[in-house]
């Protein structure tokens, strides 16, 4: 029975990811439901991932402060679960939005290093793009080189993807804008 509940929870999490772009309120609800289902069957790491996804979606729709703050109290657990780089990227987004540029720089640097450490090249590219934005706002000269590194990372990833899927991967608005 736990296996079935785990499967249902994972399905809810995937559904939340799919809904994130076109129906954020529904996606947030599904991520919350997934977290509760994961907790019910003792899957703590997956529950943290669902909570992180909830915060990412909420932040993307402009209402993530409370969710980001709640995650801040769980930073050690997120890092231990292998989710530290994603969480650092989310914190950096929140800090940048609130004007805390030095904190955003530190968080995004952690996100870049963490993504590289777990060999998550897509996350690394997203973190590099945000790092460029942070450095632009700080007035340093690093923004262009960070965007170039992000383009290179995306290109390396795209080269590994079969042709039919490559165009879809590169067509995501955030990636297309960078290229």
Structure, explained:
The protein is mostly helical and 179 residues long. Helices cover 82% and strands 0% of the residues. It contains eleven helices and no strands. It has helices spanning 2-19, 24-40, 44-60, 65-72, 75-80, 84-97, 101-117, 121-138, 143-160, 163-170, 173-178. The chain is globular and about 50 Å long. 38% of the residues are buried. The mean pLDDT is 91.
Largest sheet: none
Element order, helices and strands?
A: HHHHHHHHHHH
- The percent range for helix content is over 70%
Strand content: under 5%
Give the distance, in angstroms, between the N- and C-terminal Cα atoms: 47 Å
Question: Radius of gyration from the CA trace?
Answer: 17 Å
Briefly note the structural class of the backbone: mainly alpha
Shape: globular
Describe the protein's topology.
Blueprint: H1 2-19, H2 24-40, H3 44-60, H4 65-72, H5 75-80, H6 84-97, H7 101-117, H8 121-138, H9 143-160, H10 163-170, H11 173-178
């Amino acid at each position: 029975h736990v296996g079935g509940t785990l499967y249902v929870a994972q399905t809810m999490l995937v559904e939340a990811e799919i809904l994130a772009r076109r129906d954020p309120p529904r996606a947030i609800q599904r991520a919350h439901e997934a977290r509760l289902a994961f907790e019910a069957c003792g899957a703590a790491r997956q529950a943290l991932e669902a909570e992180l996804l909830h915060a990412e979606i909420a932040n993307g729709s402009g209402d993530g402060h409370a969710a980001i703050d709640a995650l801040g109290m769980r930073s050690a657990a997120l890092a231990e679960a292998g989710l530290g780089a994603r969480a650092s990227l989310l914190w950096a987004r929140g800090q940048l939005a609130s004007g805390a540029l030095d904190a955003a720089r530190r968080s995004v640097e952690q996100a870049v290093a963490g993504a590289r450490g777990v060999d998550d090249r897509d996350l690394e590219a997203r973190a590099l793009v945000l790092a460029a934005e942070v450095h632009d706002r700080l007035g340093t000269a690093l923004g262009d080189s960070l965007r170039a590194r992000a383009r290179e990372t995306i290109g390396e990833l795209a080269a590994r993807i079969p042709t039919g899927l490559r165009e879809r991967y590169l067509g995501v608005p955030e990636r297309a804008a960078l290229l």
